[in-house]
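Figure 3 (text version): structure tokens given as input.
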């Protein structure tokens, strides 16, 4: 693996995943509290290098591809991700038929729709706390890698410039700006444009702006314990083992 290659990741309630262009490594704790790992090789597309060099388009492609990968993971274990399917269903109903004539049924639906996040947070608060810690450990591992493995992994920040939370910050920001300027274009083109612009803003944000940009990320990560750091370091070592050997 090239040392300057970007790596990304994903957090779960029992572990995390780190990935690069060739490999995806998931390290997690089983029911007995033992570390296990899964390694999947990534298929390279001849279009990857072309797309990743086109501003705006690359951001849209990366986000859609990430969602596709996540949906495939959900479909493999629908019982585990039932609440995600519920949110997707409610979102679809809200945008395509749930916000219409103001009937009693729609009023009840809106109460459920906006109460659902709070209900899920209360119901899954322990799992959410674990996910946030693994999310922080994932970022610390990436920062450790990007600083050439200097020092110890626990010395690095739980915040990272390329976090999806920063992407969401910019996505919402561009929507607010468009609303303020009263810009109106095709709904789907408009939001695809926001996705592309948000990605470009995220990767080109100067470090001096990060304290403001990471405002959402600070709520989406927590300082990890030794358990989460151990999993993150193991995932990083497996992902970069060819680098260590070179």
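Below: residues designed for each position.
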């Amino acid at each position: 693996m090239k040392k300057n290659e970007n790596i990304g990741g994903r957090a779960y309630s029992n572990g995390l995943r780190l990935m690069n262009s060739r490999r995806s490594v998931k390290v997690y704790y089983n029911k007995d509290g033992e570390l296990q790992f899964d390694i999947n090789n990534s298929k390279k597309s001849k279009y990857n290098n072309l797309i990743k060099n086109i501003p705006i388009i690359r951001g849209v492609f990366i986000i859609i591809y990430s969602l596709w990968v996540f949906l495939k993971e959900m479909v493999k274990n629908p019982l585990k991700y039932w609440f995600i399917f519920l949110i997707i269903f409610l979102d679809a109903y809200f945008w395509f038929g749930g916000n219409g004539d103001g009937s009693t049924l729609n009023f009840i639906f809106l109460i459920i729709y906006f109460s659902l996040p709070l209900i899920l947070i209360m119901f899954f608060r322990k799992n959410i706390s674990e996910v946030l810690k693994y999310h922080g450990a994932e970022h610390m591992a990436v920062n450790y890698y990007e600083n050439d493995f200097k020092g110890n992994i626990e010395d690095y920040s739980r915040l990272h410039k390329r976090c999806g939370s920063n992407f969401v910050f910019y996505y919402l920001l561009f929507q607010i700006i468009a609303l303020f300027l009263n810009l109106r274009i095709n709904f789907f083109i408009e939001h695809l444009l926001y996705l592309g612009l948000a990605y470009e803003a995220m990767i080109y944000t100067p470090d001096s702006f990060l304290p403001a940009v990471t405002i959402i990320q600070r709520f989406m990560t927590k300082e990890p314990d030794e358990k989460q750091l151990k999993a993150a370091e193991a995932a990083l070592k497996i992902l970069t083992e060819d680098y260590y050997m070179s």
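The two ends are 9 Å apart (CA to CA).
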